[in-house]
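G.,

No rush on this.
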Amino acid sequence: MLAELTEDQKEIRDLVRTVLATRPIGGTGELSLPEQARADWATLAEELGVGALLVPEDHDGLGLGFAEFCAILTECGRALSPAPVLSSGLATLAVQLSSCQTARNRWLPAFATGTIGALALAEDDDQWFATTPATRAELLNDDTWRLTGHRLFVQDAELADVIVVTAATTHGRGLFLARTDDPTVTITPMPTMDPSRGQATVHFDATTADRLDTHTPDLVDTLHDHALVALAAEQCGIAEHALDLSVTYARERHQFGRPIGSFQAVKHHCADILVDVERMRSITQHGIWAIQTTHPERTTIAAAAQAICSESAVTTTLTAIQIHGGIGFTWEHELHRYTRRAKTNETYLGQPATHRNRIADHITT
């Protein structure tokens, strides 16, 4: 099944596209990357209410759903926006999906008014959503925990007000939320190949945290499924923009007295990108439908969406560079930025092989 966009969802998508079209792509312009990301977030959160999108109405939010979130992420990928929409949206979902009323009452209204969240999930051995995390959580009293450990590749950590992190307890894995203004939290920027979005290492040294999954034991797995489909939606936007650039260039660039799009080799490249884009859209829409309907195979579908979209986004941007010829290889052209975002996304939340292994494990158990 495919989750086709409704007319209201298309209006939200088109509004975000119009707004982001006026902003420079991530890592360009006069502002530094963090300043640009904050400016874009201010526009999206304050003027369009993106921060309140996933927050229920009874917690001062808009009460919209996962499909609207993914539609916005596709536009963020298309515009290569540095705004922390993916990170903060997933952090909001972690609280929104929780059954802990204390955490919901405390943090959902904060997200609705622009609080930025991030996810801290990656281990030293490149595991994401590890069953036994290296970071440890110690219970101080009935409601308060302390986190000790570190996480790598935390996207938008420098912008975040709160961080959602998995940690090991004496009774298994848990999901926690900590404030970044806690003096026991240290954020160290990491160099990455993507100049349009920042990542960092985050250290926790007996950091006070709220537990989110006390009454929702499957919360980490549920968040995992949502995160994979959400990232796939952003990758769709990257590939769609690569297709648009390629088709436009093939029509406008002339060689031997005619558009290069009339040559069979260029036609084949454009057709290959289109096939990849349609495949990415289909599996992502299927993933959104599976999430919304809590389909019993949603874990497999979400893993398949990310395995396919992560590789296809890289393939489409590289093919687009080939279509553009010499100009496509220059720093002045924007395509290399889309390629670098796609390549970084390919490993964010796990390698494609990791997702395929998750599918195999789910099928055989």
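When you get to it, here's the other one too:
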Amino acid sequence: GRAFSGQSFSAQPALDTDPDKIHPDLFRDVLRAMPPRHLAVVAVPDQFHYDVLKEAIAANQHILCVKPLVLRHEQAVEIEHAALDRGLFVGVEYHKRFDRRALLARADYRAGRFGEFRVGEAKMIEPWFYRFSNFQNWFTKENTDPFTYVGCHYVDQVYFMTGLRPVEVSVIGIEGSFPNGNPGWMWTSGRVVFENGAILQVIDGLGYPDLGAGSNDQGITMYCDNGEKGGMIKHNDQFRTVSHCYAEGEGPGGSAFNYINPDYFKMVPWENAGLKPVGYGYESVEAIARTAHRIESESAGLSEDEALEHRRGMIRKVDAQGIIATPANSSVNELVMEAGRQSIMNDGRTARITYDDPPQVALI
């Protein structure tokens, strides 16, 4: 098609396969058939990440994994060590890290221009029509919830910008039923306390109106101070100042009037064949893919032992830089996910995170 001019894809299973026939183990065969140290993309429901990640590492593949990496901190540490042992790069696709507004805020915050983060609120409400999608088969109470699925974006963003670690998490959920009858948490309200006492309130859900102008509702506000003056970071991530109203056709939810986000992920015309992917969503994926490629290309020609040590050294540099999320530099998110799941399954009780060796999560 126009989007990928001159490219081809090999679907597994083939696109003409009976859709009622499932292939739960096919991914293992595909991974094992790949040449070593190519790139495996893990984009499956949250609760399956851990098993697929282990298979990809066993098959000697670099990895791009959608957020959150896993749902338990000890699993993140295991993945970090197993991958590094083989010199395999694992990038976690927290694409909001590549949003220019987040990068600017990170630079200004770390330069002391806002003062210290004190209190904030964030929201990400996904569309109502998600309830009629494949979500109804896996987004169930025992597996995940809106705070885990999308709230992790803004918890990561606060940590990414400020470097502050979360120490307490409480999440209250509102239960509902999907069209197929499966029970799920449809709405959540979470509170995250950070090590300096700052508080972030996060609301998430599957319920943005299908006829609304935005494809979802999202944003973050952080209030700061330096003891003498107040500071503020306010990002309206839903409305990026572009509005389109169509005379023919509709937007993603069925409305004629739409807020357009040109900054996240779009395919646009350009001077060459096909369409060009643009936006921080693409740049996040590109950065992970290019990093894996660079690690391989710069290790080429070395002896096996030298190449392994060189790959490990490059991975540690990416960890330390802290722009691309990795198991080593973003595992506080797994602590928050673990704490959030404990809290929501225990009527909103607060879960405390302690940074012992190893870090611990416990209800209080």
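DSSP finds ten helices and 15 strands in the chain. The chain has two domains: 26-95+276-330, 100-262+334-363.

Enjoy the weekend,
O.
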